[in-house]
């Protein structure tokens, strides 16, 4: 009896072992999908997905890829294409800068960042634009505004002009609302990234010694190559022009910045009409903020007053070049405190050209009120 039980147990164990070893082969024989599988119906896209898909379909044809060549270099044609991994920053050494732009109007004006085309404008180079259709056309610079990192291009003859983007406003933006960026990161055409508006009223240093106020911060992925591309709201309207990222690595770290569309909508028409933007200012050159802080000065130190400017006519005084004695320090403007240059710039830009501005100016420990009108001081800091 025990021998029989042992034999049965060994038989069962052996059978289980054989079944365990053979299982993969049996399953492969019985269930292998050696023919195309049938497609499972997914149903309708969600409302959020439909919104994003429709937004991209409407906006993408208006977004272009900008190529700026500092100088004609035949050897550049022998270099590898920038389709995978060569960002706009890495191409600077070869004299080529790439970025994004978008169609502004039916006349073929394209808006992009000034730093995208700067090498070509200063180096006597050339600019070409690749449209969403794949067509490549030449373009010329109509005007640049380094203080706002904006530039306007004019497309050459195209087979079919892309539609201009719908323009929104940045005045009523809310932190947390959806944001969509379309651009050409690392040379990859028409890439859509999504996120939210992370913060408003950021300050961003630009050229000409100015700071741009009211800048939009977003976590929509922005990388080298996105510069000059549109930041859109959920209605597909332009709310900003992507211009910079904050990243130790040089790639997206979830902190991108865009020039607000209300600034763009003011600057671009000036560039189209005049080739330059009229910067409202009072005609001063401000002292370094870090130096003023070390001296314990809270306000904008007037380093120099430009002859014939509104500041000169109002009697503002700069630093004495012989003795180094500080003259005037601007501590308020139009009822707001002024702690740094961007505070003063924001007030002056809000006032606009040829508009009155009331300053609080400190000199020799006494504060007085100075009233003046702004003027076009495009060649100065403020």
Mean pLDDT: 83
Q: Segments where pLDDT lies below 50 for 5+ residues? A: 75-93
Radius of gyration: 30 Å
Distance between the termini: 108 Å
Total beta-strand segments: 20
Summarize the helix and strand pattern as letters: HHEEEHEEEEEEEEEHEEHEHEEHEEE
Instruction: Specify the helix fraction band.
Output: 10-25%
Main β-sheet description: 6 strands, antiparallel, barrel
Question: How much of the polypeptide forms β-strand, as a percent range?
Answer: 25-35%
Helical run tally? 7
How do you describe this structure in short?
The protein has helices spanning about 1-30, 45-60, 115-125, 260-275, 290-295, 310-315, 340-350; strands at about 65-70, 95-105, 110, 125-130, 135-145, 150-155, 180-185, 190-205, 210-220, 230, 240-245, 255-260, 280, 285, 300-305, 330-335, 335, 355-365, 365-375, 375. With about 375 residues, the chain is α+β, with helices and mostly antiparallel strands. The strands form four sheets. Strands 1-2-3-6-5-4 form a six-stranded antiparallel beta barrel. A six-stranded antiparallel beta barrel has the order 7-8-9-12-11-10.
Defining key terms:
six-stranded antiparallel β-barrel, 20 strands
């Amino acid at each position: 009896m025990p021998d029989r039980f042992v034999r049965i147990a060994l038989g069962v164990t052996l059978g289980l072992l054989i079944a365990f070893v053979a299982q993969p082969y049996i399953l492969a024989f019985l269930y292998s999908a050696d023919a195309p599988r049938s497609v499972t119906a997914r149903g309708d896209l969600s409302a959020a997905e439909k919104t994003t898909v429709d937004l991209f379909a409407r906006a993408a044809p208006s977004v272009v890829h900008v190529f700026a060549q500092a100088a004609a270099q035949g050897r550049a044609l022998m270099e590898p294409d920038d389709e995978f991994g060569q960002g706009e920053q890495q191409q600077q050494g070869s004299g080529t800068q790439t970025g994004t732009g978008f169609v502004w109007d039916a006349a073929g004006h394209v808006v992009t960042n000034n730093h995208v085309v700067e090498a070509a404008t200063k180096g006597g180079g050339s600019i070409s634009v690749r449209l969403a259709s794949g067509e490549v056309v030449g373009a010329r610079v109509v005007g640049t505004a380094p203080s706002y990192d904006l530039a306007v291009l004019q497309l050459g003859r195209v087979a079919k002009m892309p539609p201009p983007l719908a323009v929104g406003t940045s005045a009523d933006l809310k932190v947390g609302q959806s944001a969509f960026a379309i651009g050409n990161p690392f040379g990859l055409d028409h890439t859509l990234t999504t996120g939210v508006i992370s913060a408003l009223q950021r300050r961003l240093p630009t050229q000409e010694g100015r700071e741009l106020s009211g800048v939009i911060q977003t976590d929509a992925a922005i990388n080298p190559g996105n510069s000059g591309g549109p930041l859109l709201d959920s209605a597909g309207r332009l709310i900003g022009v992507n211009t910079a990222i904050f990243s130790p690595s040089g790639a997206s770290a979830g902190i991108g910045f865009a020039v607000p569309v209300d600034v763009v909508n003011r600057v671009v028409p000036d560039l189209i009409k005049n080739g330059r933007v009229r910067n409202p200012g009072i005609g001063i050159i401000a002292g370094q903020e870090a130096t003023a802080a070390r001296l314990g000065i809270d306000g904008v130190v007037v380093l120099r007053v430009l002859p014939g400017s509104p500041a000169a006519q109002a009697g503002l005084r700069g630093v004495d070049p012989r003795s180094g004695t500080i003259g005037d320090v601007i501590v308020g403007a139009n009822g707001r405190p002024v702690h740094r240059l961007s505070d003063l710039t924001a007030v002056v830009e809000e006032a606009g050209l040829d508009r009155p501005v009331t300053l609080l100016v400190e000199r020799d420990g006494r504060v007085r009120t100075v009233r003046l009108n702004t003027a076009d001081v495009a060649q100065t800091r403020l």
